[in-house]
Amino acid sequence: xxxxxxxxxxxxxxxxxxxxxxxxxxxxxxxxxxxxxxxxxxxxxxxxxxxxxxxxxxxxxxxxxxxxxxxxxxxxxxxxxxxxxxxxxxxxxxxxxxxxxxxxxxxxxxxxxxxxxxxxxxxxxxxxxxxxxxxxxxxxxxxxxxxxxxxxxxxxxx
Length: 158
Description:
Helix content: 25-40%
Distance between the termini: 76 Å
Number of strands: 6
Radius of gyration: 31 Å
Oligomer: single chain
Mean pLDDT: 75
Largest sheet: 4 strands, antiparallel
Number of helices: 7
């Protein structure tokens, strides 16, 4: 299944209480269509927790339906409804950001890896200083403008 297709069939369910588990989500959302998968991402292990085996979910989950129409029905009917005493937010799930996107609005050339791969020393880069040092003769197109300007000037005088 393509990622784009899967994302249109997966809904995000936020604002879940600790007592909500995958079974409860399945029971509440199965009325809208066939469910392929229910996920409740677990919280990170906290050393302050008395029992590390008792990991709780992070307060949100994902329900993947077999069709995008079923997912839209679930969003339309369950968004801002109450589940186990708490109002939940149900919306279309968005794909997770890749590590490259996590950098925010940084330019690619601010990355050390990109610089190592793409940057050449200035003399080899063909920059302005490299061109001046490499040849003293005018390149194609340079110097012709002056000759044409003189010809145009002569044409105007006649």
